[in-house]
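It is worth pausing here to work through a concrete case rather than discussing structure prediction in the abstract. The textbook approach is simple: state the sequence, then state the predicted structure, then interpret. We follow exactly that order.
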Amino acid sequence: MKKDRYQISNQITEGVIWKQLLFFFFPILFGTFFQQLYNTTDAVIVGKFVGKEALAAVGGPAATLINLLIGFFTGLSSGAAVIISQYYGAGKKEDVKRTVHTAVALSAAGGAVIMALGLAFSGMALLAMHTPEEILSLSVVYMRVYFLGVIPSLIYNMGSGILRAVGDSRRPLYFLILSCIANILLDILFVRVLKMGVVGVGAATALCQVASALMVMASLMKTEDSYRLFIKEIRFSPYFLHSIIRIGLPAGVQSAMYSISNLIIQSSINSFGTDTVAAWTAYGKVDGIFWMIMGAYGVSITTFVGQNFGAGKYGRIKKSVRVCLGMAAFTSLLLSAIVLAGGHIFFRMFTDDLGVVSIGLGMMRVISPSYVCYICIEILGGATRGCGDAVPPMLMTCVGVCMLRVIWILGVVPLRPEVSTVAFSYPLTWTVTSVLFITYYIRGKWLKRCRGAYGK
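Step two, the predicted structure:
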């Protein structure tokens, strides 16, 4: 099998585990960093040059609703990455090819559906969330402009997932860097120079997503390896679509449940007024540093485990999980210290309103010290999904994170209606769910079940 110079798939199944995890992790991390910078730039520019209402409109309830729809599809598409990594590790060229074409068809169809839903129901959804009146119209406009560019966004995400599944984590990074630079320049042009406000931010994002999609599609079409994309062969293959959905649907449901619980949290935050919404938005961008790193660990371990599962190297799977947990624990503790020490500086990047900064610092002091409580959810969940065990992680997350979070918001917050009470829902649910994941992983039945399902 001829491989592109960007790939490290041989090392994934054969090399030194910690080195290969890091070689794969860092391009994903830097890529996620630029994705976060992509989003943070929007918030910084509108916060500084338009106002706190625009900041709240771009990053508050609108962002939560967008994450609900996009997150569901991203979770669904993760099934394609798992299947492709397993087939690729096992050397099944034809299965890789047909899964790739089915995955791209799914991203185009899913994008069309999400675009229609976003354009039709944005206003109603924002009203249902009790979005403050002063930011409602701005949020609706931003969401509608954003959803016009959602099809290329999903195609890019799917294409990047395919490249990572075969061991290429560098080209998605290069594409994100270029798109991020373009997004910053367009944000400045549209918002600072042309005074387009939130419309300019949405338009800049949509244009850059088109460019990203074109770059990733070109990469897939030019490769000589088994995952090469042929436009005329993009179609649904029922067997491979079923395989993608079997693994991806639980992840999509899990993501949707996360987003729904976050919608309820956002509705609770909205009740405290525009300053609190703006502070929550700014903290979300600071908090994104942690999420981008944990997400990179999660993608790394899922791909690493998937290819080794396909190659039948089960001892290597368990070793990689231990190594990845150690790296994630060290990183999370370091991040907690950095975020808490630099909190005031971080918030002043987004706004000069001292009231907003004060509220945000209060949120940070509740959530940031507990980052380490989350890592088992990401690492152990990613490892079991990489073997094809998707339903139990979804159920544990839905119960331990989502349902418990909703119960807390609806049952406890009314008894003590403070922002800190809302924020405490995060460390509480992370701790409970991590205990569930540790117990499930140690019992080991997930690996036996996967080996039996795949005849290994």
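Step three, interpretation. The two ends are 23 Å apart (CA to CA). The chain has 19 helices and no strands.
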